Amino acid sequence: MRKSIEQILEIRSRNSRNLPFLTAFWRIADIRDLLQAWPESRSGPSPEALRQTPVGLVACMEAYFKGVIKDLVDSDSPFLECAAKLNVEIDLSKLVEVHKKTFTFGELVGYSLLINKRDDIDDFMTKMLGFKFMNKLRRVAWSSGVPGEHIISDPNKVFADVDEVFRLRHIVCHEFGNVDISIEDARRYVENVLAFLQAAQYLCTDIVLKDIQKTQPEQNQYFEHRFKDADKQLRKAVNSLESKLEAGTALKLRNLQKAWRAYRDTDTKLILSTFERKSSHPRVRAQRREELTKRRIQEIEDLERWLIPIVG
User: DSSP alpha helices (H): ranges in the chain?
Assistant: First the structure.
């Protein structure tokens, strides 16, 4: 059982403060760009490379929904109580670690879930949200509010492709089956999994924002506030570390932070370049900057453990 606890801690260290959707989107976008950029004049990627497409897509879906459920549970009521409906076996040794704040209850629940098919996602999310998840997903619209402008234009085809991706992933990973996947099918799988996750994210965002207005400007304001709060925490962490350093080392830290902020701006611009809908840019910009900023807070805490013994 100790191994299971260590696995949760390892997952936490690799994914500390990541936002599930942006992480999944960025990784799937890399696959999409590779497939779309392949010259028509050349033969396609190797059969094995194409066979790995479902493997990567399922990994992103699995990590995304586990991350969403983790965040929902950790946001407290009513989702904390909904977690009791999930089919998860939890032993006392893990609860002791939660009590000691080694990791959160949401992490314990989310990372304990087994997701092997779309029905598993439907079951978990339905129990967490209190409504039939897949039925709701069919009707999720872009925030523009234009009637009929649904994120998933053809739910039956998208759901069928998501099911097929799970099936192919099982064959490739557990049977070593030599399934043939064309580059056209691989491209379609990528686009439909992206639409599936985008609809899920919009739906979950509406749940998180249920207590505020859902117009695009007000959502932008909400996420901008989250970023500014994280940035304030980062400045506090940096100032605390500076106060413990000698003047020369503190100056180097300030220069390092200046370079990091430039990196954060460049990184955010790169991600925005992949979003065609300009109306979503303020929200995406704030979410990505919040993600990077929270990750930087952890890095500053790690840096302190290196610097203080050296200068002390």
Answer: 2-15, 20-36, 47-74, 79-82, 92-99, 105-110, 118-129, 133-137, 155-174, 183-208, 216-242, 247-272, 281-311
* Closest residue by Cα to residue 161 from 204, 116, 118: 118
Fold of 219-311: Substrate Binding Domain Of Dnak; Chain:A; Domain 2 (1.20.1270)
Q: What is the mean pLDDT of the chain?
A: 81
Paired with 10 in beta bridges are none
Split at pLDDT 50, 70, 90, the class of 111 is: confident
Instruction: Locate CATH 1.20.1270 in the chain.
Output: 219-311
- The stretch 34-58 carries a mean pLDDT of 81
Burial 45-74 (b: 16+ CB within 10 A, else e): beeeebbbbbebbbebbbbbbbbbbbbbbb
Q: How far is CA 235 from the centre of its chain?
A: 25
Q: Which residues pair with 150 in a beta bridge?
A: 141
Does the pLDDT of residue 229 top 60, yes or no?
yes
Q: Is the pTM of this model over 0.90?
A: no
Using DSSP's 3-state secondary structure scheme, residue 150 falls into strand
